[in-house]
């Protein structure tokens, strides 16, 4: 029963969501609307699950005196602080509130800085690893240089054909490759969905069988 | 170790320093490079420009996190300025939990700057978890997903949302995202409901969206800071996007120079090595 019930539930819900698209009858659409509302409620629990998981991982690191337990402590303290500010400050969303200040003045600069560091590593990696060793790598290198130039105003100034070549690269070879990948991914998603609905793929139940 | 090998093994901190200088200098000495407008940006501008004033709202999904803020916030500011300048009502929401504060930040800044009234000219619906469920749910009834705005006012009590039921009443939806949200809007709002969707994404993501432009599933696209700069040019309000283009130009030139120099050094070192091997043999 522990196995059959979730499988049956998955089969019914999956089949309904697939079939409702083709049945515009008000009863079916009403059920669809209701299911979407339930789905939002269920998905909200993912946040709770994520928070519990985060706390467990870092609590274990601190308890077992792992080498990097200092980072875990900072993570848990930051989590508690932000949750506390969010829950106990009545107008946590108002501009200038402690919650908003922490978000705007700590989280925003930290995350933006981390992402900006990519530019430095990309430059260093490009210098060391981007070599025209083979025909394929040479093509990649030339295409990358043209697109990099074509995506900034200085490319227009160097030669008017650079933005044209950039557009061609993006709209012809790039588009063809992306479309192929997307169709492949789409077919894979359909196959996986069918396997889950029909109970062939059961890893989502946690057992892996 | 010959000169080529020494150059190839240069301390990477010199490269970091060069990149830092290339980013910072143009902010103090702007180059003022002219920016031409590309077709995907022009299409998005035209679509927003065609929305009748004081009627059905533009739905703006600010789905980005702080990491991609420098690239995507200039887009949200430019789009809001364009909408408010045309008296187009704007409803803002976010599918990213960290997007809440960023949406408020952009909305409050432009609304204050342009004297817009909350509830009449714009509103903020807030954040809801569950990407596909939220997007699909809004196609049935927006009130099911957002019964209240972000500040607890029932949606039915907000004047600008009067008569707005679902995507049939939204002339244009634009998602600004540094992750898969923009694609989700195409899949779950455009495909089943026929919603017109535009997107603004980071430069590295832009290539992923060209298939959607080609099929018409996306009506327009802002790609990275360049996209924001082009839009700022179109609305004749140069701001962070245009300012950032000078830095981006100098960094791109520097990276290309590093690639060329790296290859010269690599092939130079290889030729020297082979020459020495021949001499030794």
**What overall form of chain A do the CA principal axes indicate?**
extended
> Quick one: which chains have the greatest interface?
A-B, 58 and 67 residues
Please tell me what the overall shape of chain B is. elongated
Rg of chain A (CA only): 26 Å
The percent range for helix content of chain A is over 70%
Q: Main β-sheet of chain A, in a few words?
A: none
Tell me the structural class of chain A.
Answer: mainly alpha
From the helix content, strand content and strand pairing of chain B, which structural class follows? alpha/beta
Figure out the total of helices of chain B. Answer: 12
Number of helices of chain A: 8
The proportion of residues forming helix of chain B, as a percent range, comes to 55-70%
What would the average pLDDT of chain A be, to the nearest integer? 88
Task: Specify the biggest β-sheet of chain B.
Answer: 6 strands, parallel
Describe the structure.
The complex is a heterodimer of chains A (209) and B (281). Chain A is built from 8 helices and no strands. Chain A is mainly α and 209 residues long. Chain A has a domain at 1-88. The radius of gyration of chain A is 26 Å and the shape is extended. Chain A starts with a helix and ends in a 12-residue tail after the last helix. Chain B has 281 residues and is α/β, with parallel strands linked by helices. Chain B folds into 2 domains: 3-30 and 246-280; 39-238, Rossmann fold. In chain B, helix 4 links the parallel strand 1 and strand 2 (90-94). Chain B starts with a helix and ends with a helix. The mean pLDDT of chain B is 91. The interface between A and B is large, with 58 and 67 residues.
